[in-house]
Amino acid sequence: MNALVSIHNFIFDQVERAGDWLLPLFARFTFAATLWIYYWNSGLTKLGDGIFGLFSPSIGAYSQIFPKQLEAVGYDASQLSVFHWVVVIAGTYAEFILPALIVVGLATRLAALGMIGFVIMQSLTDIYGHGATDIKTLGAWFDRLSDGVIMDQRLFWVFTLTFIVVKGAGFLSIDALLRRRTATAPA
Fold first, then answer.
1. Percent of the chain scored above 90 by pLDDT?
2. Residue extents of the structural domains in the chain
3. In whole angstroms, how large is the CA radius of gyration of the chain?
4. Which of 53, 69, 77, 85 is most deeply buried (CB count within 10 A of its CB)?
5. What pTM did the predictor assign?
6. Nearest partner of 167 among 13, 10, 16, 11, judged by Cα
7. Residues 24-35: what's their mean pLDDT?
8. Rounded distance, CA 173 to CA 102, Å?
9. What is the pLDDT of residues 63-102, one digit of tens each?
């Protein structure tokens, strides 16, 4: 029996060591494969026309982020405050910058932490701003269905991002390259 336990421990010690560099890379791959283009396209819908669209968000940006406030001003975004503009611009840039940082593995833990905040705000906006309270969209934990967009799917998103926050970007990342260069640099 001791031999069997020893073999088990040896094999899974190797698996655990491999997981230390493989799992962070796989978490970033999972994010890239499932959410990078999602957020990129969402960010594109928020840009205004032309090169100055980077600083002049579309009406769709305001309707996605501040639906009730935009409706209250008759869908005239010029009546919203500078605060609204700053939040929309920050949210739009975040949809481009944070996912890109995660995918290339630069400032990955901070970017993943920022994305967790983004997903939470996105979910709250969907629930309170857009009224996404039907059970099919909202979902519920510990029920027999796993297809709720907000409670079920976004829990997986946040778990993947939390894994990146805790474990970092992994061996194949700009963070790791910078860490190796710093460790080998003369003091």
1. 71
2. 22-184
3. 21
4. 77
5. 0.88
6. 16
7. 96
8. 9
9. 999 999 999 999 999 999 999 999 999 999 999 999 999 9
